[in-house]
Amino acid sequence: MDYDPVRAEDPELGEILTKELNRQRDSLQMIASENHVSQTVLKAQGSVMANKYAEGLPGTRWYGGCEYADELEELAIDRAKELWGAEHVNIQPHSGTQANEAVYLAALDPGDKILALDQNQGAHSSHGHQAYSAGQFYEVEQYGIDVDTGHVDYEGLREHAEAFEPDLIISGYSMHPHIVDWERVQDIAEDVDAYHLADIAHINGLVAGGVHPNPVGIADFVTGSTHKTIRAGRGGIIMCDEEHASDVDSAVSPGSQGGPHMHCIAGKAAGFKEALSPEFEEYAQQVVDNAQAFSDRLQEQGISVFSGGTEVHMVLVDLEETHPDLSGLDAEEIFEDANIVLNAQRVPGESNPDTWNPQGIRFGTPALTTRGFDEEDLRAVADLVVRVLDAPDDESVRESVREEVQVLCDENPLYEDLL
Length: 419
Ligand SMILES: *Cc1c(COP(=O)(O)O)cnc(C)c1O
Known about the structure:
This protein is α/β, with parallel strands linked by helices. It has 16 helices and 14 strands. The strands form four sheets. Strands 4-10-9-8-7-5-6 form a seven-stranded mixed beta sheet, with helices on both faces. A three-stranded antiparallel beta sheet has the order 11-14-13. A two-stranded parallel ribbon has the order 1-12. Strand 5 (113-117), helix 6 and strand 6 form a beta-alpha-beta unit. Pyridoxal-5'-phosphate is lined by residues 33, 95-97, 124, 126, 172-174, 199, 201-202, 225, 236.
């Protein structure tokens, strides 16, 4: 596939797509929630399934002509069941946020209580931030991270749950460099008679690849995005036991969405097939090995890494002590100028009151690992990061870093056949 038809018919749009392709090729994508999907997934997402209305479920659609949409959706569901061992899968959520909102609709009544991780300590905003519907329709309280160890404060969670008596406890996070103890959260949820939602948006690829424990079969509901470590293109997914199947299905549609994005479901099917291969296990392991090599090298050079390292795919650098004058947003901008793309992130426990300009920066290895980076490459990237941090005001340092980034990118080419 290439973008030629678009460039020929619509040069203005074609140019934008080409610039984005080259940006992804020639810079280091280290946003922990991003990845590069295969050309198979791209092609599936760009297929004629984009034209099809298929509201309803396979076999019970509101529209005619759904024979192949049915086959597709069943294929995607079967592959998801095989990947994560779920009894029931709804593959229609447009994104991870929609998946969470559908679970709230399925499991809760307005005014019910949600206990989620502190928004400033790694929760996703869809876990009850006031700007999201969950924050407005439900009563939300927050548990915390033990900032010394970086792990969830499970004892604190238990005490909070016993006092608050929530209807739903949410585990699974956007910024958490540790393995989550699903059973421990489930025990707490059962003891206070709450449902447990495990949101594995970030880590479902690590779970599928066998390098993170699986909450499916433990938590009542498991949700995720499909474009992060699982590398199956944009979208969301919900998994649960049969007992919740019909509530979940009707909460997704018509409860909170219209017609499913069948082209995205085609992307999910394609990505799930790739994730079922033995190579995907190697990929998942390499993602974690790369994150650890990167984090070790940063720390060897005096950079402060939150909780001293990582067990997953993300590394949170705390700038407070080493770079008190450099805010997370400034760092994000400076790194982008050096062709290293990452995001500013709040560090659990940081006292800075400006939540929009935190003192941390979050790095992730899923995208670089996809394009072939190994531990040695990640140590080289860590050295570049240190050079930028050592001279944040020096434009010439960034220029030489850009040149070395280009060498690393050329050694690990991306989408070689795309024009
Ligand atoms: C990324 C993420 C989501 C969903 O994000 P979408 O952009 O809506 O797919 C949900 N939960 C967590 C923990 C996430 O990290």
